[in-house]
Specification:
The protein has 3 helices and 11 strands, in the order ααββββαβββββββ. A hairpin with a 2-residue loop joins strand 8 and strand 9. With 162 residues, it is mainly beta.
Length: 162
């Protein structure tokens, strides 16, 4: 409270308590590391979106932090990764069961482990069960390898044609 506001309040007969005036709102938790850009895919979006994330290593009690200490940033502030509007294959039965995918008329089989790829390394190919399917940039409509977005860390599962 400013001196002027205090003087006006006292002149008006308003009671004043210094304890109330000294209460400060607690600062919102801030990430230990920012500048982390992960990949988001919205069904029907036809492209990857850069999504800002933060790592909270020292404040893992923040209500929006996942088990790994991560949260994503929205226009309203930090939020749980599980609440993102983005889709990935990690929760899909066909992904967990290693099912063969048919993409643009070709059959693809999962191979290897997911890998981290930069958004500029892949180009949108199609969608499968609301999950983005990508290929190496410039590889055409029937590539030998496709990449299915698994998780927001820009983790892609390769699938081989054949």
């Amino acid at each position: 409270m400013s001196i002027t506001a205090l003087a006006l309040a006292l002149a008006a007969g308003v009671s004043f308590s210094p304890a109330v005036a000294s209460i400060q709102q607690a600062a919102a938790p801030q990430p230990d590391r920012t500048g982390i850009w992960w990949c988001g895919y919205t069904p029907g979006g036809r492209r990857l979106l850069p999504v800002p994330y933060g790592a909270f290593f020292t404040d893992d009690e923040a209500p929006f932090v996942d088990r790994n200490g991560y949260a994503y940033f929205t226009p309203k502030g930090w939020a749980l990764i599980s609440e993102t509007p983005f889709s990935g294959a990690d929760g899909r039965d066909w992904f967990r069961n290693n099912e063969t995918l048919t993409i643009n008329g070709a059959r693809y089989t999962k191979y290897g482990l997911p890998r981290i790829l930069g958004p500029d390394e892949v180009a949108w190919l199609t969608e499968y069960d609301d999950v983005g399917v990508f290929a190496e940039a410039g590889s055409g409509n029937a590539p030998d390898v496709i990449y299915v977005l698994v998780a927001p860390e820009c983790a892609f599962q390769p699938y081989q044609r054949g």
